[in-house]
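User: Please predict the structure of the protein below. I'd like the answer in structure-token form so I can feed it into my own downstream comparison script.

Assistant: Understood. Taking the following sequence of 372 residues as input:
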Amino acid sequence: MQITGIEQTHLDGAVDGTFYPTWIPGYPQSTHELELFEVHTDAGITGYAASPSFAGGLQYGDQLSLFLTGEDPHNVEGIMRKLETVNLVGPRPWHLEMALWDVIGKDAGKPVYELLGAEATDIPCYASTGEYRPADERVDYIQDRIDEGFEAVKLRVTEVEHIELVREIRDHFPDLPLMVDANKGWTVRVMEEETRWSFADAVEFARGLDEAGDVRWLEEPLPRHDYRAYARLREKVDVPIAGGEFNNGTHHFREFAKHEALDVFQPDAALATGIRGGVEVAAMAEAFGARFVPHTWTNALGFAANLHTMTAAGSDWCEYPMEPPWTPDVWSFMLEGGFGHEDGSIRAPEEPGLGVDIDGAVLAEAKAEDEG
């Protein structure tokens, strides 16, 4: 089997309203922009991948075709070496690897997790918010998630003073496991600069979480490449420290492991490692007693890739993006079916490959707009 070409289409899904993601300070997001890639083969099998994008798109499908046309999609390791060159001179390409696994799984008639030697299993979801909101605006949201079956919620913060949000939520929900994301590892500076935390700020906030109790982790309180600072922070506080969602390549996670800098490794297969790389990172984490719970906040194809990776790695939680109006219908708009949970748990799709079907009408409309 050979790859005959890469076809890229910019997709733009409407959001019924706006929300203000903490990783794009000051930006009112009202659309879901992504790049969809179709990896075509001479066997008539097409694999799909997607990456986040901006309004107007980010075109590099033709360049990917130059690197991948003629390659056997089963040669994941060899193609990933070629993608390292793409990473050197252009956009991050790790999401393309999910399309290879999609092809391989469809060819074998097996879901990706089975190709990786795993069995399907229910994974508990935590409801992942995307905005900072004060406690009086969060209580009803959290109660709604509990009523839906979620057993944990992740709160977003941007300031050290937002420890008060965590304290107030803990008072309202004394038995609810919480995760807290500071979003200091990276940011998209389109509208405003983010508020940066010093090491002392991170220590102060983390100790406040220690006092609140039953906080499962503090996510990315420091820049994503400051491995020594993460290690120092772990030594000074009790709350587990998480991060790495947007680090670039498995070698960054070897640094986290070498410094014993994280309690929870969170590489996103679509952004940081690919699927196989994610499984490798999970093994690194396990080697010194850390956990593996990937970031999933991209789109439904990225969610599927991470779900297969989690299944192979035995993750104990799955991040489930939920910040109305940013709902599963929004981040799954390119699929014929979405990713619903069952009483707060989810399973990887059992169909071959990634196990998802692209909505042909959505794709055809986007291609027509590109041609027009």
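That's the full token string. The chain has two domains: 3-109+357-371, 115-346.
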